[in-house]
Amino acid sequence: MREIGLVTKLKGEFASVRIGRHSACGSCGKCGMSKNQKHVDFFVKNTLDAKPGDNVVLDIKDTNTTKLALVAYLIPLALGLMFFLVSVLLKWPDWASFLMFVGGCAVAYTIVAIIDKCKKHQWVQSPDMVEIVKINKGE
To answer: Does domain 2-61+125-133 have CATH number 3.30.450.150?
Structure first.
């Protein structure tokens, strides 16, 4: 997905690029913008030497959403099901199997939270700055 954003500030070799909500915005989540947000800011490596006030095109990778869904939903579900299956194989009562499922999910979410903290919330690849564009305000 490609979006045009405004460079708002520079910090070292990175630029803060603000992308605003527009009429084509849905709820795909690729940019990380929720329904109530009016804009989202990205910190992108400034490969084009853009200056504050420049409009730039960002290439936001499609794999970001898939990777986040895998980490947030599938890993905890898989661990919960593994705990559940172990309890079923051991012929534990149904309530114990249910608690094992919930406990497995809780353990997995705890592991994901610890890994997230270690990775400093960098699960996804940062967008790439593709080009600097000129936008005519009169059009």
So the answer is: no
